[in-house]
Amino acid sequence: MSARVFDLPDLGEGLTEAVLVRWLVKTGDSVAVDEPVAEVETAKAMVEVPSPFGGVIARLHGEEGATLQVGSPLISVNSAAESYVEEERAGSGNVLIGYGTSAATTSRRRRKAVPRSVAHNGERPAVQSPIVRRLARDNGVDLTALSGTGPGGLITRRDVETAATKPEPVSDVDQRTGLPIRTRVPLTGMRKAVTTTLTRSRSEIPEATTWVDVDATALLELRAELKETGAAPGILAMVARFVVAGLTRFPELNSRVDTERGEITHLDGVNLGLAAQTGRGLVVPAIKDAHRLSMRGLDTEIRRLTTAAREGTATAAELSSGSFTLNNYGVLGVDGSAAIINHPEVAILGMGRILPRPWVVDGEIVVRHLVQLSLVFDHRVCDGGTAGGFLRFVADCVENPKSALADL
Description:
Its cofactor is (R)-lipoate. By secondary structure, the chain is α+β, with helices and mostly antiparallel strands. The protein has helices spanning 86-91, 103-109, 130-138, 157-165, 189-204, 217-228, 235-249, 295-311, 384-399, 401-407, and strands at residues 2-7, 17-23, 30-31, 36-41, 46-50, 55-60, 67-69, 73-79, 172-173, 180-181, 207-215, 255-258, 263-266, 272-274, 276-278, 281-283, 286-287, 324-327, 347-351, 355-361, 364-378.
């Protein structure tokens, strides 16, 4: 038997470190080629790391929650000479899922991961469902410390939710306020990346904000008509189509500021970013070539990407390729917001919730469905005239969607 050490591989996208979220195997487990052995969180996404060779796990390098550098040891595997067959060697690409391994290849070789935790009595615990494991991870709950209330000691969703609501033990005191510190949350992985991006945006970009109240009644009526004939795109997809059209007319808002070269780079095409709130923080997956898609095409991609973002399966490329961001903060139950530009982009459009409100139409006060649109833009790339022109274009499309669609 000989021990082989597998180092944390190149994560791509210029990433040099990752947080070890959880082990999918334990010492003594058998592992096959391309079987996931750990789940790590990079600054871009949550990904699984597959083993490049088969054998028996001899050692796990690192504790859950630790930050690992690319090239540092991840696992040591004991493997017999006969396990080094050419078929296995050729079958492993030493890459991360989401960074190049195809779904078809991965699904053929992957086996169900063996639970790593051990119950307090030394017995192997009942296997938890993926929903329970993800809920525990998102809330920082250690499953090995719980006693399950389900059949056979199974840890249920209620067990995790109960544990998540228990206050953390007080260990120290804040020096400025004198108040007890309830818990400390390390800035790692995606949350650290979000912090860096937003801080850089605030420090580098001379931003300005403009907004307008828009009568979205006709847009809601159009969607209701479309639903009568079958599946209708969501309101966000309809607004997204108008945003993409507006960017073709006002390309200054779909650009980059290159401070080193002293120039503004206007982009040919739109990768539309969608701000999405997840359990691991704010992420912005992007619809590639959004300018080539219809409302229904945009609707399909919006649903796919928002689901992937919340489940942690969005790829690094999807999370870092946006050219302009649309932020639907209305889903949070708020009417307006001055958002922070997603650096290195130069603008972000926000949409609040749509509510019935009094509105003046032809001199009469009537009830209409209103929504507030707000545009935050980089004053280096354009002035208020361009920003206002773009915002007014989108607002006019929302108020007269049938006329707008006839021109698109």
